[in-house]
Amino acid sequence: MMSKPQAQGPNPKRRGWSVRRGIWVVGLTTAALGVVVPLAGAGRAVALRMADGRPIAGLMFDAAERPAPAVVLVPMLGRQTEDWQPVAEQLAQANIGALAIDLPAATLPAEAAELQRWHEPIGAAVAYLAARPAEVQPGAIGVAGASLGASLAVLAAAADPAIRSIALVSPSLEYRGLRIELPFAQYGTRPALLMASVQDPYAARSIRSLAQQAAGTREVRWSTIPAHGTILLARDGDLVRQLVEWFQRTLSVN
Q1: Which of 108, 153, 154, 189 lies 20 to 30 angstroms, CA to CA, from 76?
Q2: Which of 56, 71, 70, 77 is nearest to 124 (CA)?
Q3: What are the domain boundaries of the chain?
Q4: H helix or E strand, kind and range, residue 195
Q5: 159-208 pLDDT per residue, tens
């Protein structure tokens, strides 16, 4: 029997990092607006609001020449947003903006219905980017997600035609009751990149199943390194390069 990836526990450093890196500011609308706070280094903090008013933190890496394409980066459960920083920096170097966001919580909610709503921060991040045409090219927004973040990326993309391209790292057909086969089919003919380790049995099985849904461009990239999600990306630089190249191709608006 193939094993499913286990949900990861809360990171004890996560809470402290969120407090020191950002200040929550109520947006003028529900999800479309955010407030940015400068940070030292390549990224800057972004504070977003979900439709119900809950704050979501993010870290924005700007492209040098703007307006430019942009990608929302969605983490694994219980992992820090900084997991995406090396990927975000390489995207920015390729002149693609990157907005890494937090999940609503570090642990799974008690109610399955609540988990179904966890893709809403992605919608808030996409709306934030789309509302800035001087910085982000219209029609050139993508989403990359890892593990649970991959499942949420599929749900968000199925619901939002503004998402032009997705990349799923170590996806799961089913994650604690959250199934993605139907939303992936609803995503339609828009392009999808599927990435995993061949030594990650359930993610590999999930990718093979999703790749058979040939409604549009479906590309698969494998790694032989035994790791999952953003940990796999941290250990396999070639996958990061391929992910960046994927968004260069699929978010081109020439």
Answers
A1: 189
A2: 56
A3: 15-108+115-250
A4: strand 192-197
A5: 999 999 999 999 999 999 999 999 999 999 999 999 999 999 999 999 99
